[in-house]
Amino acid sequence: MRLQLIVLAIFSLPLFLLAQVTVSTDSTRRQKTNAVDVDFLFNYYQQDGNHSAVTGGTGTQELNDFDGQIVAYTPIDSVSALNFQMGMNYYTSASTDNIDFRISSASRHDLRVQGYVTYSRKPDSENSFDVTVGSSIESDYISKSLSARYTRSSDDRNRNFSILASAYLDNWVVIFPQELRKPGLASLETGKRQSFSMGSTFQQVISKRTQAEFSAGLVWQRGLLSTPFHRVYFSGKALPRIENLPDSRLKFPLTLQVNHFFGSHLVTRLSYRFYFDSFRISGNSFLLETPVKFSPSFTLTPFYRFHSQSASRYFEAFAEHDSTVVYYTSDYDLSDFNSHRAGIGIHIAPANGILNSANRNRRKAGGMMDEMGLRTSCLLRSDGLRAWMASLNLSFQWR
Amino acid sequence: MTRQFLKVFRLARHSGIAALACATFVICISCSSVKPWQKVFLNDEEMAFGSRRIDSYEKTIETYREGASGGSSGKTGGGCGCN
Questions:
Q1: Distance between CA A2 and CA A9 in Å, rounded?
Q2: Of A137, A190, A315, B9, which residue is most buried, by most CB within 10 angstroms?
Q3: DSSP calls for A256-313
Q4: What is the pLDDT of residue A191?
């Protein structure tokens, strides 16, 4: 609650910064071509519910996550650039503390560190490609990733087509629930998971004020797809088992988004996503964002997202599984539910930088804080999960 | 894997695919050619596609909390031990 009040106070800061905004007739933002851009992102997430998978689909889901990211973009020459992204998130989870009932603590905590480097090249006005390599490390999980994307534009720039391929190669130290461990062994056996995906995106200009994007993807995962410290209880059985899911999964997401500019101040971004996979989960998601441009420098964006999904064929609630089934889970993230998320965002980008920093630094290194963004939203799920999240983005530029 | 692929492919008859295909077709046949000097509104930052950096964290949360995640949005299902 206290943190929510602090965030609300931070949201009042733009009212002060708004006084610094100078009205400009230029309706387009500065082009980032020869400048070095650095973005600082700070994110906070908290949730609570009563269907923890660690305790078989019942129990607290209280969790807090503090996330920080630094993203730096630097041009190499007129056609290529490098992008560096580093971040870490620290989370505390009351449910994962229940992996071992003998150890008493307020909640378990962990730290995840990640880093990615992207090389992008645009040799001419119609072709561009980029390659990204990265890695993330947790106390029990290591991931390495590689992705590549190619984009082709039409002569008149009214049409774009992109293809993307990526691979995640993961290793984790498997931690078992306390009562299901072999004598003397709390965790062992390195589990592997591999995720491969391919996607394509098609963008089309419809009119002077409307454009649309259609994207399709295919994801194939294999390896250890269940979570070893998730318990599953069975009807008529006292002792649980470790969650067990197939070692292969196919996912098919499809997305259509249409953006339209009404008048001179209102933009609507409407997207629909359809999803289904080999676990028999199917989902439909609608997202509506309506940025209101009070001026070229100040934009307010209310948004609402609705998501509905069907349950996996392997899901049952606490103590409802039949003991003869081969695959089983009580993870409510794989159950059938509806969720509603609503929030608001603020984006400030004055022509002379935040607090007139461009003019103040004119005779110095030339750096300035040119943009600031705030975004917060609440999530409510039909199974009782409630969450709240907030993000802050500070963008700096050096010429 | 082939059997799995065929099973999932049969699921592609879901009405959501048909609705998306129809909408995409209607959109494509209603396109008009827009000249570069007519793209004042289209070039606005708020009209751009793709996730902004500030809402990328929300996409990550969706990957954690929804079974119907992966592919075209956020993480492709790897790197975090999540869905």
A1: 11
A2: A315
A3: EEEEEEETTTEEEEEEEEEEEETTS-EEEEEEEE--EEEETTEEEEEEEEEEEEPPPT
A4: 77
| Bridge pairing between strands A108-121 and A127-137 | antiparallel
Per DSSP, helices labelled H in A137-237 are none
Interface test with B, best of A209, A227, A389 (most B CBs within 10 A): A209
Summarize pLDDT for A162-196 with one digit per residue, the tens. Answer: 999 999 998 887 777 777 766 665 555 677 889 99
pLDDT tens digits for A294-330?
A: 998 999 999 999 999 999 999 999 999 999 999 999 9
Question: What span, in angstroms and rounded, lies between the C-alpha atoms of A304 and A306?
Answer: 7
Residue A392 CA, distance from chain mean position:
14
**More reliable by pLDDT, A323 or B68:** A323
Count CB-CB contacts under 10 A for residue A237.
12
- Strands A231-232 and A210-223, by their bridges, are unpaired
Query: Does the CB of B65 have a partner CB in chain A at under 8 Å?
Result: yes
Residue of B nearest to A30 (CA): B45
Backbone angles phi, psi at A334, to 5 degrees: -105, 10
For chain B, what is the total number of helices (H) and then of strands (E)?
A: 3, 0
Residue A11's pLDDT is what? 43
Q: CB atoms < 10 A from the CB of A134, how many?
A: 18
Rg from Cα positions in chain B: 18
Contact A316, A334 (CB under 8 A): no
pTM listed for this prediction: 0.84
B3 touches chain A (CB under 8 A): no
Task: Judge whether A151 is closer than 8 Å to chain B, CB to CB.
Answer: no
Helix (H, G, I), strand (E, B) or coil at A177: coil
Rg (CA), chain A: 24
Q: Which chain A residues have a beta carbon less than 8 Å from that of B67?
A: 279, 281, 283, 309, 312, 333-335
Contact A114 B79 (CB under 8 A): yes
Judged by a CB distance cut-off of 8 A, whether residue A361 touches chain B is no
Tell which residue, A300, A304, A388, A303, has the closest CA to residue A348. Answer: A300
Look at B43 and A28 and tell me if their CB atoms are within 8 Å: yes
User: What is the DSSP-derived secondary structure letter of residue B47?
Assistant: G
